[in-house]
Amino acid sequence: MFPENFYWGVSQSGFQFEMGDKYRRHIDPNTDWWHWVRDKVNIEKGLVSGDLPEDGINSYELYEVDHNLAKDLGLNMYRIGIEWSRIFPWPTTYVDVDYSIDSSYDLVKDIKIDKSILEELDELANQREIAYYRRVISSLRDKGFKVIVNLNHFTLPHWLHDPITAREKALTNSRNGWINKRTVIEFAKFAAYIAYKFGDIVDMWSTFNEPMVVVELGYLAPYSGFPPGVMNPEAAKLAMLNMINAHALAYKMIKKFDKEKADKDSKEAADVGIIYNNIGVAYPENHRNEKDIKAAENDNFFHSRLFLEAITWGKLNIEFDGETFVNLPYLKGNDWIGINYYTREVVKWSDPMFPTLPLITFKGVPGYGYACRPGMSSKSGNPVSDMGWEIYPEGIYNSIVEAERYGVPLYITENGIADSKDVLRPYYIVSHLAVIEEAYEEGHEVRGYLHWALTDNYEWPLGFRMRFGLYEVNLITKERKPRKRSVEVFSRIISEGTTKGLQDEFRLKVRGERYENDSG
Ligand SMILES: O=[N+]([O-])c1ccccc1O[C@@H]1O[C@H](CO)[C@H](O)[C@H](O)[C@H]1O
């Protein structure tokens, strides 16, 4: 059984959900991604789909409809993102703040923000958008949801990141995003300001969604379709250090300016965490091969421990080698971890490619995890989603156990599947929740489960083709229509408080290479 006080919910972001109103009154043309997805070169090269976010599901206007659908499902938690560029479409750089630098490591130790700075920021902020997000959060609260507000979900204001120029000029431009310390400083201001404006109605905050996706896909995987699409290991390292630094400063600022408790069930006025993907999900291809084992270890260390150890204990692996650590207490600060889990990774050894990133000694093995072919089963015989992602529910157990080492409360903040025909999703939901339930019964506590996503939305470089919604959205009429079997199974698990009895009913039948459910 799941405990009585378990949180059930959904997660969403700004860029992927908000836009799509008929008259284009609520488009936000001020992010790096806005420019990235309409760039001719990117479209010609097939790096992005050509779909545009302004043709999206219009949660900007239809948020109440969505909140009601979520309520009818029986949910009591909802995670949203506040889009930085909507609040500050123009630079906040000219609002002067003092900060101190740790010159040994070139990191920002501390930043001085007080009431007068916040008042200056208030002059700059787009008050219409402030009022809008206040309405959204209030609508959720009125309906009984506990709200998580996430501050950064991949997108940056265009005044901080011009990804097209960054790509063309090999990152030598000045608006070069997370490799620039300015972004760290401005993020701290943004976090302070948002905490000041919404502290009375929000208790749960996260600084970042999946910072390592920005690092790895932005600077180490130029074909991924993520901005700025440059291969540069030095930049990857710098972006990562800056995001660690930005988390630490934002953590302190939110704690400083949100002193007001909003929810009855909160222990603190501000619980500030981080949402992180792929925690400990790398497995060796060959379990008996020392080198493959080491490859998986290095992958897990580079991808999740390096960042999470820094913000949990102030222990930073400054050489990025898994060996040389420095103790930087000012990086410390994290109250909870959100685990985003979709699938595993299977890796094998590959000799180090980058002198500055000696931990990169791993290569993904095609046929497992994220590296499968849509419509085929994985090498282990597991079904695969429209994204080409293997269904591997066992992996979420390892993620939970791995995340426990940081000693803070855990939430599953994303879990879901691109499955336009809704053939695999019911099984996906039941099987992952069954593993979470079992883990819980063994004493591995997770406090909530947020599905990705309530509705279809804009899947980054892949656009609208990937359908993650419990509700299908017609992009012309913006109508939401339930994917019936998934909606049914999810709400049954919630109302019954268990997956038991449902696992058999929603198992998949294998027919040759394809998987079908009982109705299909
Ligand atoms: O966006 N990603 O490239 C990515 C790679 C691996 C795991 C999660 C992940 O990002 C996550 O994925 C889901 C579904 O794809 C959403 O798009 C969400 O915005 C993102 O946080």
UniProtKB/TrEMBL annotation:
The keyword Hydrolase applies. The active site is at E414 (nucleophile). It comes from the Archaea. Keywords: Glycosidase, Hydrolase. SUPFAM superfamilies: (Trans)glycosidases (SSF51445). GO terms for molecular function: beta-glucosidase activity. Gene3D superfamilies: Glycosidases. GO terms for biological process: carbohydrate metabolic process. The keyword Hydrolase applies. Belongs to the glycosyl hydrolase 1 family. PANTHER family: GALACTOLIPID GALACTOSYLTRANSFERASE SFR2, CHLOROPLASTIC, GLYCOSYL HYDROLASE. This is Beta-mannosidase. It comes from Pyrococcus abyssi (strain GE5 / Orsay). The lineage of its organism: Archaea, Methanobacteriati, Methanobacteriota, Thermococci, Thermococcales.
